[in-house]
């Protein structure tokens, strides 16, 4: 993942997170505000219902009082025989808009009943209990009707004429019709649970628990029923009778549909706005990341060029900010690198020439001194000992020829290093190569008291290599190992198969190398020995490099050294 | 001024030929021809002959000039059938009808109208008739014991007619008081306690809407005793029915036989003595297949312009041949 993508991802995450947080905060605040408004609305509506309910009670009480005060009531009260008035209650109830009306004699005997005309002659003992009906107003009462039990809102008025009393009991059924007649705003509904016996709750599904709780606690409770758009806030109002027995529960429901739909609309708008904002943010992030990363990318490209060897690569400076300063620093750095490289090359070239001169002088000086001594001996013998000159001359020329051969050998080595031929590749088995090479060195190893061990991997595959050059590599490494063990030791040649090539190791048990020596070991003309040109390991590294292989050394002082070659 | 009054009085008392008597009744006759038997229309001939028969609502009988007793004063009798009692009363008050049936309680409720009432003896038997499905006699007896006849008679019937536990009225048999009529709710509950609850639900058919209130009271009494009595839907077969049958013979034995036939009861044996008649009637009532409740009179409201009445006999039969209508005043 490149820098620009990362930057874009970070910007995007930041934008999405910000939009999400804002959207969530707005949603929460909106919902809370709506909940407050909804709660206030329910409170207002409950108060409105109470007012409406109180108005109905007053209306009923007034209607009953009007009947009691009517001439008809007077006539009935003073009548010697009530039987003539059996149908009177129905007419009076109809006239005064009441569902229920009973005219009851002083002893509690029903004279006429509008709701159950056949109940004439039956007793209403509760009426004669002596309650203050006038102050009680309209109250809830359990009412038996021909088709079942119902809940009613009734009032009682009395008509006293002379020594006779007539009770007028009138009211309205508290049924769905009554509930539906209440003026309620849209989105609200009123349900009535009548606590008249078993099986009533099933008429109001989902409200059982609220009704049960209201009946238990005998107080008003507010609860949310249902979920989502189907949810309703119900406010339950217990309805006690005149004897304080709980006859019903009124449930004022306020639908949350409108609220939920409004919330959903706002949520959708919020999501759309957030999505738009996120898309816009991503687009802006894309643009900003491109703008921010362009100089960085150029810087990276220039750095890649530098890494590839083009040390003269520079970056265009387009701003004065940190990126601009970084580009300037990069340009200065590459400029310095180029200068330093040139200086280093120059210095190394000089050093190489010096080293070469030193080596040449050293290598050439050794044979020249015997040459000079031999010539001087021959001159001295001719002058002082002419009779011995022939013998001296013969010995001297022999020595001269030997030293000249030595000089020729030295010059040949330098020539070989200069003229390293290109490898001629063919399949080479290093197990075979190692075995043959060790066999060549057997006398020399014996003379140096070095034990040779060959740990060869039988699964070693053949690899493409120049067998002559590889033989030379192994010889140089074995010679180095013998030189490293002047007191004798063990030389180990080890081969191993790699997943894609081979590994060859040559280990000795000599004095080992310091880390500094390890670093400079493959430098041409560097040697830790008192003899040698310092070109052996340089030639080894050159050969391995030509084979696209790798050579390394692993050593610790006093614990020997291991040269490791990996070829593929 | 005196002369005018004398002429008016003379015209009011002198029979007058002509005019059509407009009669309204509750009953309807869904038959192709005018009925030949029964208490009302079948009694019009031979003084009147059917002139137009539009069953089941309308009929016209015209005076027969060759009637055995001579031509009646009225030219014709126009009969509206299938009229509700309330509608009949309204029509009478509005002068749209001359003779209408009225509720038995009407004379008590409306004393001013008493001079325009023709009433028969208690010849209308109001009773409960159980269907064949109610096989358990305990249920039938329980309901017979549960009904508070006195309350119904005092209030709903305004003490018109008489409470009766027998098929024949007291005035006809002389022993009707021997049949028990008192309510015994405790005994009824005891009887029903042994009856399975499912069998305690009955449907009550009330063909005549005028009997609705009485049926409601009976249902209330039954409920107190432990029976659930509900109104049967129209055109359905009810478990029991509240019906009215008319006694059509002044001969107790024949009247009993006629009632038994009308109620699908076994034909009673011919009784030559009151004891035998009582035994026969008691046998009919055993098992409580029928539960007599009341004997009510037939009551008619009469337009004041009708003269020559009463036009019905103590048995409630129509006798219109002597009626005449005051001519319309100029």
Describe this entry's structure for a reader.
The complex is a heterodimer of chains A (about 575) and B (about 325). Chain A contains 14 helices and 16 strands. Chain A is of the alpha+beta class and about 575 residues long. Among the domains of chain A are: about 70-180, Beta-Lactamase (2-Layer Sandwich); about 310-420; about 425-565, Histidine kinase-like ATPase, C-terminal domain (Heat Shock Protein 90), CATH 3.30.565.10. In chain A, the strands form four sheets. A five-stranded antiparallel sheet of chain A has the order 2-1-5-4-3. Chain A has a five-stranded mixed sheet with strand order 11-13-14-16-15. In chain A, β7 and β8 form a beta hairpin. In chain A, α8 (about 320-385) packs antiparallel against α9. The longest helix of chain A has about 70 residues, at about 5-70. Chain A is rod-shaped, with a radius of gyration of 60 Å. The relative contact order of chain A is 0.06. Chain B is an alpha/beta fold. Chain B folds into two domains: about 1-100 and about 305-325, D-Maltodextrin-Binding Protein, domain 2; about 120-295, Dipeptide-binding Protein, domain 3, CATH 3.10.105.10. Helices cover about 30% and strands about 25% of the residues of chain B. Chain B contains ten helices and 13 strands. In chain B, strands 1, 2, 3, 4, 5, 6, 7, 8, 9, 10 and 11 form an eleven-stranded mixed sheet that branches. A two-stranded antiparallel sheet of chain B has the order 12-13. In chain B, a hairpin with a 3-residue loop joins β2 and β3 (about 60-65). In chain B, α4 packs antiparallel against α7 (about 185-195). The radius of gyration of chain B is 22 Å and the shape is elongated. Chain B starts with a helix and ends in a 5-residue tail after the last strand. The model of chain B is unreliable at about 1-10 (pLDDT under 50). The chains are: A alpha+beta (about 575), B alpha/beta (about 325). At the A-B interface, loops of A face α5 and α8 of B.
């Amino acid at each position: 993942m490149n820098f620009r993508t990362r930057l874009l991802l970070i910007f995007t995450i930041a934008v999405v997170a910000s939009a999400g947080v804002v959207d969530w905060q707005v949603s929460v605040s909106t919902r809370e505000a709506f909940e407050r408004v909804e709660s206030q609305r329910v409170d207002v509506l409950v108060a409105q219902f109470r007012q409406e309910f109180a108005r109905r009670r007053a209306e009923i009480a007034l209607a009953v009082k009007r009947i009691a005060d009517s001439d008809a009531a007077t006539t009935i009260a003073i009548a010697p025989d009530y039987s003539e008035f059996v149908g009177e209650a129905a007419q009076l109830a109809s006239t005064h808009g009441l569902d229920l009306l009973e005219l009851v004699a002083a002893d509690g005997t029903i004279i006429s009943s509008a709701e159950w005309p056949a109940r004439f002659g039956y007793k209403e003992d509760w009426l004669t209990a002596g309650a203050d009906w006038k102050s009680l107003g309209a109250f809830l009462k359990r009412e038996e009707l021909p088709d079942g039990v119902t809940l009613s809102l009734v009032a009682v008025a009395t008509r006293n004429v002379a020594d006779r009393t007539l009770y007028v009991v009138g009211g309205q059924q508290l049924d769905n019709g009554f509930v539906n007649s209440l003026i309620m705003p849209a989105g609200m509904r009123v349900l009535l649970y009548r606590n008249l016996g078993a099986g009533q709750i099933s008429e109001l599904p989902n409200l059982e628990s609220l009704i049960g709780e209201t009946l238990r606690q005998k107080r008003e409770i507010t609860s949310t029923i249902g979920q989502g758009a189907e949810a309703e806030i119900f406010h339950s109002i217990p309805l006690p009778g005149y004897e304080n027995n709980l006859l019903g529960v009124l449930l004022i429901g306020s639908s949350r549909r409108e609220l939920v739909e409004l919330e959903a609309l706002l949520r959708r708008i919020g999501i759309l706005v957030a999505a738009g904002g996120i898309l816009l943010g991503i687009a802006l992030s894309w643009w900003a990341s491109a703008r921010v990363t362009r100089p960085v990318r150029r810087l990276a490209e220039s750095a890649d060029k530098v890494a590839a060897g083009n040390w003269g690569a520079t970056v265009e400076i387009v701003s004065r900010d940190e990126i601009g300063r970084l580009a300037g620093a990069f340009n200065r750095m590459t400029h310095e690198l180029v200068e330093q490289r040139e200086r280093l090359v120059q210095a190394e070239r000089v050093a190489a020439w010096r080293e070469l001169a030193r080596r040449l002088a050293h290598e050439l000086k050794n044979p020249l001194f015997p040459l000079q001594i031999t010539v001087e001996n021959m001159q001295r013998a001719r002058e002082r000992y002419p009779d011995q000159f022939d013998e001296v001359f013969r010995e001297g020329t022999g020595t001269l020829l030997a030293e000249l051969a030595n000089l020729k050998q030295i010059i040949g080595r330098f020539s070989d290093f200069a003229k390293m031929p290109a490898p001629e590749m063919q399949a080479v088995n290093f197990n075979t190569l190692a075995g043959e090479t060790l066999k060549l060195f057997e006398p020399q190893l014996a003379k140096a008291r070095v034990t040779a061990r060959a740990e060869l991997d039988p699964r070693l595959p053949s690899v493409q290599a120049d067998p002559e050059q590889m033989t030379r590599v192994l010889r140089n490494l074995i010679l180095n190992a013998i030189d490293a063990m002047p007191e004798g030791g063990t030389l180990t040649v080890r081969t191993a198969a790699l997943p894609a090539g081979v590994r060859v190791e040559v280990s000795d048990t000599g004095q080992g190398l310091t880390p500094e020596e390890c670093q400079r070991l493959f430098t041409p003309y560097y040697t830790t020995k008192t003899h040698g040109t310092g070109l052996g390991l340089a030639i080894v590294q050159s050969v391995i490099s030509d084979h696209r292989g790798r050579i390394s050394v692993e050593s610790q002082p006093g614990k020997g050294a291991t040269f490791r070659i990996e070829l593929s | 001024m005196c002369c005018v009054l004398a002429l008016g009085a003379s015209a009011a008392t002198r029979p007058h030929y002509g005019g059509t008597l407009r009669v309204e009744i509750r009953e309807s006759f869904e038959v192709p021809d005018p009925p030949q038997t029964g208490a009302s229309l079948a009694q019009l001939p031979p003084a009147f002959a059917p002139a137009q028969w539009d069953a089941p609502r309308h009929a016209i009988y015209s005076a027969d000039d060759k009637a055995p007793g001579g031509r009646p004063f009225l030219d014709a009798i126009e009969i509206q059938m299938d009229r509700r009692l309330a509608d009949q009363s309204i029509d009478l008050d509005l002068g749209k009808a001359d003779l209408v049936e009225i509720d038995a309680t009407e004379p008590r409720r409306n004393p001013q109208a008493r001079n325009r009432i023709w009433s028969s003896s208690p010849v209308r038997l109001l009773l409960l008739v159980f269907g064949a499905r109610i096989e358990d006699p305990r249920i039938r007896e329980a309901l017979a014991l549960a009904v508070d006849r006195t309350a119904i008679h005092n209030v709903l019937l305004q003490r018109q007619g008489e409470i009766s536990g027998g098929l024949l009225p007291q005035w006809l048999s002389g022993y009707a008081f021997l049949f028990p009529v008192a309510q015994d709710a405790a005994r009824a509950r005891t009887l029903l306690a042994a009856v399975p609850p499912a069998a305690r639900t009955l449907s009550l058919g009330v063909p005549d809407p005028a009997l609705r209130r009485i049926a409601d009271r009976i249902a209330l009494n039954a409920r107190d005793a432990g029976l659930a009595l509900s109104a049967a839907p129209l055109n359905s077969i009810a478990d029991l029915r509240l019906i009215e049958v008319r006694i059509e013979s002044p001969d107790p034995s024949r009247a009993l036989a006629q009632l038994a036939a009308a109620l699908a009861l076994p034909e009673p044996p011919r009784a030559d003595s009151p004891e035998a008649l009582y035994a026969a009637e008691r046998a009919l009532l055993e098992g409580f297949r029928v539960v007599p409740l009341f004997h009510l009179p037939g009551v008619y409201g009469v337009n004041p312009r009708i003269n020559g009445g009463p036009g019905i006999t103590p048995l409630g039969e129509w006798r219109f041949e002597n009626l005449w209508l005051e001519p319309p005043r100029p």
